[in-house]
Amino acid sequence: MLAWFFDLDGTLYSDRTGLWPAISERITRYLQRRLGLDADAAQALRRRWVAAYGTTLQGLMHEHPQAADPADYFAFTHNLPLEDYIAPDGRLREVLAALPGRRWIFTNADAAHARRVLRLLGVEDLFVGIIDVFAVGLQPKPAAQAYRRALRLAEAVPAEAVLVDDRLQNLTAARPLGFFTVWVARHPERSAASAVDAVVPGVYALRADVVLREARRR
Ligand SMILES: [Mg+2]
User: Fold this and answer.
1) Which domain does 32 fall in, by range?
2) From the CA of 203, how far away is ligand 1's center (Å)?
3) Residue 82 belongs to some domain of the structure
4) How many angstroms separate the alpha carbon of residue 60 from the centre of ligand 1?
5) CATH number (domain holding residue 30)
6) Total domains in the fold of the chain
């Protein structure tokens, strides 16, 4: 049976909703407050940390362990009126419901945020569970351990695992572990696209038959 691992932010809903940019702005503000930086310095630090550690929170935990409080980080960065950004999405529901197998959320955010987003989109019942940053021991994607833990939690084997994510780095780390990788990217660079198994311009374009056909060709 296929096990689908879906990233949340930027994957299940589009960046065009404005939600991820709003979260991103709060992440920058959090660093400004926590570390006493101006906006430019905080943004530069985030870029460096995401490249080096995968996420801003990981950078904070590595380089400022005394200032890092993951629960506080998520409470602040996700403190937004989500209903102003996203609404029930019947088309998403149809696409997800048509995928055979078990569907999981696999996110570097926290489960509380994921649950709020899923409820607002009206698709919460289509997922068997949420694998969040705490479930992987605060060692999130793209750390190899995160994928191994996710497989274990989902009781899945790599040959049946599909990862759908909008961040290339998360996919290229999963692929050598055996995941079938689907990149959600509106404007993928061709050179980058060859580093994954499939590319879709948005989650609505996800079709099980395509994934299964490509998986068999591998
Ligand atoms: Mg994402």
Assistant:
1) 19-77
2) 12
3) no
4) 19
5) 1.10.150.450
6) 2
How many Å apart are CA 133 and CA 173, to the nearest integer? Answer: 16
And the tokens for 143?
């750390």
- Are 130 and 188 within one domain? yes
* 216 alpha carbon – ligand 1 mean position (Å): 26
Q: Judging by DSSP bridges, how do beta strands 198-200 and 161-165 pair with one another?
A: unpaired
- In the sheet with 180-184, reading across from the earlier edge strand, the strands are 129-131, 102-106, 3-6, 161-165, 180-184, 198-200
155 phi and psi, to 5 degrees? 50, 50
pTM of this prediction exceeds 0.85: yes
Residues 76-124 have pLDDT tens digits of 999 999 999 999 999 999 999 999 999 999 999 999 999 999 999 999 9
**190: CA distance to ligand 1 center in Å?**
20
**C-beta neighbour count of 1 within 10 angstroms:** 9
Q: Are residues 136 and 183 in the same domain?
A: yes
